[in-house]
Amino acid sequence: MNEQRNLLITVALAGLVFLGFYYFYERPKLDALHAQQQARSSLATPQTTQVALPEVPPVAITLPRAERLAADKRIPIQAPSLTGSIRLKGGTWDDATLVRYRETTDEKSPPINLLSPEGTEAPYTFNFGWQPTEPNIKVPDQESLWILAAGEKLTPSTPVTLKWDNGQGLSFERTFNIDEHYMITVTQKVNNTSDRLLHLTPFSEISRIGTPNIADFFILHEGPMGVLNGKLEEFSYKKLREKQTVDISALSGWIGITDKYWLTALIPSSTQNFTANYQFGSTHQKEHFITKVIYTPMALASGQSVSLEERIFAGAKQVHLLDRYEKQLGIPRFDLAIDFGWFYFLTKPIFSFLNFLYGLLGNFGLSILLLTVLIKLALFPLANKSYRSMAKMKALAPELTALKEKYGEDRVKMNEEMMTLYRKYQINPLAGCLPMVLQIPVFFALYKVLFVTIEMRHAPFFGWIHDLSAPDPTTLFNLFGLIPWTPPSYLMIGIWPILMGLTMLLQQRLNPQPTDPIQAKMFMFMPLFFTALLAQFSAGLVIYWAWNNILSIAQQALIMRIEAGKPKLKAVNLNKGKPKWKK
Known about the structure:
Elements: H1 2-35, H2 65-70, E1 74-78, E2 82-87, E3 92-102, E4 111-115, E5 124-132, E6 147-150, E7 160-165, E8 170-178, E9 183-192, E10 198-209, E11 223-228, E12 231-234, H3 237-243, E13 245-250, E14 253-258, E15 262-267, E16 274-283, E17 286-295, E18 298-300, E19 305-316, H4 319-329, H5 344-361, H6 364-378, H7 380-395, H8 397-407, H9 411-424, H10 434-452, H11 495-510, H12 517-534, H13 539-564
Antiparallel strand pairs: 1-2, 2-3, 3-4, 5-10, 6-7, 7-8, 8-9, 9-19, 10-17, 10-18, 11-12, 11-14, 13-16, 14-15, 15-19, 16-17
């Protein structure tokens, strides 16, 4: 019956309405996120429950990033996808710029600065070290000045090696190798020329000072995370504030800190057991978030040396690149750095197929349009059955109206008679809902793809759409740019959302109308509601919905025309045989 059909549609769309409503009010945060993609950094190593680390001296003055970088002796980094430098004081990696990505769609806007040194507004660094179990053993710390022993610039073809000597028979080496993207291999070596047996505990960490500007959206994780012993671990900044510290013993995995599009990660040595430590604290009156790998102590006899190799990643979360690292380097589930969500089994294949189509068409917008056509073809038989059922129900509209007039407010009796009527004409009132229900997971999966994958970031379509992952930048309330005024975000209702709303309205006219006047008014209001709601969604998603509506309208109009030329259904005796047809 109509009420049940409408109820099912309403329930099926409830998740979408809730998601869009939340997104609508979270829009200012997302605007701020797009406008403030900037450098992150971290200060020195704080104390942990496992390893006592030296205190960081306070930084009296916060300098601009460029000035702070110029104040230290550094080893430059030059790779096709990344530039930066390694600070000799402390031997830390605290400077990384992603040269292939910019803060806005403007080609002249600054590139993304991911890491920044201590003393800047938002420090974000990689730190490494050794902690002795015996007292009075000097080890390098944040104030230790390393010497460049080999190499002048870190490039994919030229590694660099740093050295530091404690003057007590221990010498330390730190060698950096970088690939053509965002992965650096760090090899640490300790030589013991003293006459003592020593035990050293190696560690590495990612340190981030200052609370980052995040979307704070419930469908996207941003903050400390990792895959440990095959299990995904995620800690929001809020959760880590509450827990203060979390320790997880692991045999394999990786840990890091993720933003929407960027990732810093520690990939521990595959030959060493380790403890993954997540910490929250306060440094220089700013929040301090740390992810740390602490290895088991290593014995170092007199005249011997020990070494440890690990990898660190700081860059863009490109799906194909994370997959390649996972396969070639054996990094467990590295692709989970991208929050594909509950529909991972659907979201990632949809992205992979969109990326394949992009390789053929050269435009993600066209790829979305072609994907929509292919989905419609896959659901074509089911949709045809659905539209035939709708056409038959539309033909029964006069009889349904008569039932409503006859039984008035006696809804129980009216529902019984409506079910009898459907049985007499062999119509399934729920058949029209199935294609819509099947497309809801696809809709959410595509929404996720547009929202979380960096490949969609700043991906242009045609005309005024320069970023498929951002909302349509035009708006009805300034006559699409003719009036020199920028309305608030909730009034940004662009051309594509309006086209989508018009297609919803037209499609609604083709469907059987509810007999309940309240439901009829609600359904008439829905195109307007969704127009305003989806105006805040990514343009790519709105384009998908509008194009899907257009294809559905064409298919439904064709089916209804065919059904109109067929002989009418005759009511049958429910106790005898199958329905008969007559002209």
